[in-house]
């Protein structure tokens, strides 16, 4: 009896090994991947565009805010800009892992992003624009996570990590309005 089980395990392991060797150029996308890759890559590229637009908005606000009394606000904007760029890099890396191409085309950014760019010069309007964008990002990530949690746990985990930081950003922007 034990011998049959050992043969079954060996056969399964051999099948897995053969399948893994068939399409090595697919990298992380194995035969067992259950997600709809092309649809997911489009979703991730929209999230990438949103993160890049947020990076640009936070960076612009950093350079636009003046005065010694706004040093802490400037620092907050720059920290958020850096974190948005980290999110963009994480998303681009996942797109590549899924054998897709990250879309960094400037002409596509605003069309594909869930959030808007804002060029206001008023501090309260800057904070509100950032808070609205963060809330949009939060809702977008929540929807994506729900859609992906069963078919692509790796991407779902990545998006959950980003979502957590976006929630922090929203709370920080909200506290600046008090």
UniProtKB/TrEMBL annotation:
Gene3D superfamilies hit by this protein: 1.20.1260.10
Biological process annotations from GO: intracellular iron ion homeostasis
Residues that bind Fe cation: 51, 87, 134, 166, 169
Stretches with biased composition (Polar residues): 8-20
Example of a GO cellular component annotation carried by this entry: cytosol
Keyword field contains Kinase: no
Coiled coil: none
Pfam families xref list: Ferritin
Residue span, Ferritin-like diiron domain: 34-178
Chain positions covered by the region annotation Disordered: 1-24
One of the record's GO molecular function terms: ferric iron binding
Keywords: Iron, Iron storage, Metal-binding
Protein name: Bacterioferritin
């Amino acid at each position: 009896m034990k011998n049959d089980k050992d043969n079954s395990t060996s056969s399964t392991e051999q099948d897995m090994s053969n399948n893994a060797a068939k399409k090595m150029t697919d990298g992380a996308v194995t035969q067992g991947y259950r997600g709809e890759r092309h649809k997911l890559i489009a979703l991730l590229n929209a999230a990438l565009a949103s993160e890049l637009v947020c990076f640009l908005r936070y960076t612009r606000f950093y350079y636009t805010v003046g005065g010694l009394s706004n040093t802490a606000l400037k620092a907050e904007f720059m920290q958020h800009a850096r974190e948005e760029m980290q999110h963009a890099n994480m998303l681009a890396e996942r797109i590549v892992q899924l054998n897709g191409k990250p879309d960094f085309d400037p002409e596509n950014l605003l069309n594909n992003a869930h959030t808007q760019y804002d060029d206001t010069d008023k501090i309260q309007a800057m904070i509100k624009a950032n808070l609205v964008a963060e809330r949009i990002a939060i809702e977008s990530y929540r929807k994506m996570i729900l859609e992906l949690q069963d078919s692509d746990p790796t991407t779902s985990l990545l998006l959950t990590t980003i979502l957590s930081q976006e929630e922090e950003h929203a709370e920080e922007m909200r506290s600046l309005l008090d």
